[in-house]
């Protein structure tokens, strides 16, 4: 089974580190983790496109 992960923060003061670490601990390979740093008011999700 292939696992994929998605982590997102909505402000520049937030960090993706904890989310990415949790995904890796759950068995998701680093090259299958997609991330976004975007405002909550935007509906665009660059990491999911």
Which class of secondary structure composition applies to the elements?
alpha+beta
Shape verdict: flat
- How is the quaternary structure best described? single chain
Helical percentage: 10-25%
pLDDT averaged residue by residue: 87
Number of domains: 1
Radius of gyration equals 11 Å
Put simply, the count of helices is 1
Series of H and E elements: EHE
Stretches where pLDDT falls below 50 for ≥5 residues? Answer: none
Question: Would you kindly provide a brief summary of this structure?
Answer:
By secondary structure, the protein is an alpha+beta fold. It has one helix spanning 17-25, and strands spanning 5-9, 33-37.
Can you characterise this structure?
With 49 residues, this protein is of the alpha+beta class. The protein has one domain (5-40). Helix content is 18%, strand content 20%. The chain has one helix at 17-25; strands spanning 5-9, 33-37. Strands 1-2 form a two-stranded parallel ribbon. Strand 1, helix 1 (17-25) and strand 2 (33-37) form a beta-alpha-beta unit.
């Amino acid at each position: 089974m292939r696992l994929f992960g998605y982590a997102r923060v909505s402000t520049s003061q937030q960090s993706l580190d904890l989310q990415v670490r949790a995904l890796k601990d759950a068995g998701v390979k680093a090259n299958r983790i997609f991330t976004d740093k975007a405002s909550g008011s935007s509906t665009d999700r660059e990491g999911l496109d």
